[in-house]
Amino acid sequence: MIPDAVFAETLWQFLAPIRSLLDDPAVSDICLNGHRRVFVERAGRLELTEARFETGEQLASALRNLAQFVGKQVDAQRPILEARLPDGSRVEAVLPPAAPDGPYVAIRKFPKQKLDVSRLVELGSLTPVCARALEAIVRAKLNVIVAGGTGTGKTSMLNALSAFIPHGERVIVIEDSKEVQLQRDHVVQLEARPADPKGRGEVTIRDLFRATLRMRPDRIVVGEIRGGEALEIIQAMTSGHGGCLATLHATYPRDALTRLETMSMMSNVDMPLAAMRIQIASAVNVVVQVKRMGDGSRGISHVSEVLGFDPARGIYVLQDLFVRRYERMTARDDVRSELAYTGARPTFHGALGEYGATWPSELGVSEASVVPAEDAGG
Predict the structure, then answer these.
(1) Lowest-pLDDT range, 111-120, 264-273, 292-301?
(2) CA distances (Å), 304 to each of 153, 194, 368, in order?
């Protein structure tokens, strides 16, 4: 068997035309539209580079080598490849015949230096007072969903929030592809595995989640909720496994809940829709919405508390605790915005003390001013 280090070096040689881009810390994404057009994202903006592969076959050979490196196969019958480079970068590729003018490749790089909360505050992704509010939310074992579109920084935000998990808690991470880098010591990382070309050896997120429930987790972190496993996660959140953190794709906080609803239906469990909606509204306490602004910068756009489900109107009831207000574009096309507290009173405020968590005093919420959960409106 070829040693992994030798195999990895061979792979890097196949990727020599874009190796300098892979090594450039300023590059966050590399997009290949065929072998001649290579784009990169720097500081949130895409730009065309001079890098290129000599032929489409040269690029296809690199992708076949990558598939072999991760134990997969790519050919005319299997033209889509999901893989990870030796440095952890995520690769999604579509080859002919599914991509007649391809191959098309997207490489998502991950910063070698972890983005902690203080750094995100410096970048304007959130404010110091919002950071302290999120610290109270995480410490109090509220269930948090980080929602956003592709490339909005969901995983980076999840990693940063993990720093608020108290030391000594056992955290189990479940992912399709290892991306989450939790800033804690006692972490167990589990990774799903696709079936081999003969359909053997598949390990799904749902398989791992069921195993996790018997591994004494204090916290469960799901890198991304994608399908039917959503129902198991929701049921775990409502059955004593508090403090869950997860990401999913959604444009707005309410969309995150309807996406959970849709994915829960993919579980093939026969559950009345009304009961499912009540479970989702009870399970998820807070949605942290992240967004990419018009200038390419990323940050929190909403921190919203889930108050319940209103069957009369058929909608989830949320209240925004923090909302980003947009002012204007500067002469340099930078977006001026501010993440501001809305003045809303969180219904979970009274439960923070049980975990030694404290809501920021400057937000002016006293015990007497908190609306009981059963009286909260829309």
Answers:
(1) 111-120
(2) 18, 35, 21
Most confident range, picked from 114-118, 240-244, 361-365: 240-244
Neighbouring C-beta atoms of residue 340, cutoff 10 Å? 14
CA dihedral 59, 60, 62, 66 (to 10 degrees): 140
- Given a cut of 60, is residue 83 above it in pLDDT? yes
What is this structure's pTM? 0.85
At 375, the pLDDT band (50, 70, 90 cuts) reads very low
E-assigned strands of the chain? Answer: 27-33, 37-42, 45-48, 80-84, 90-94, 104-108, 144-148, 171-175, 187-191, 219-222, 245-249, 286-292, 298-310, 315-329, 335-341
CA–CA–CA angle 40, 11, 52 (5° rounding): 35
Per-residue tokens: 36? 């001649």
Q: Provide the H-helix boundaries in 117-267.
A: 117-123, 128-139, 154-161, 205-212, 229-237, 253-265
Could you tell me the domains of the chain? 4-108 (3.30.450.90), 117-375 (3.40.50.300)
What does each C-alpha distance from 99 to 3, 49, 56, 72, 348 come to in angstroms? 33, 22, 12, 19, 50
Region of residue 276 (left: phi > 0; alpha: psi -120 to 50; beta: else):
alpha
Residues comprising the chain, all counted: 378
Specify the DSSP class assigned to residue 353: G
Quote the pLDDT of residue 365: 62
245-249 and 219-222: which strand pairing? parallel
Structure tokens at 113: 């230096």
Q: Which tokens go with 40?
A: 């990169």
Distance from C-alpha of 326 to C-alpha of 342, rounded to nearest angstrom: 14
Average pLDDT of the residues of the chain: 88
For residues 173 and 190, give the distance between their C-alpha atoms in angstroms, rounded to a whole number: 6
Distance CA 240, CA 51 (A): 52
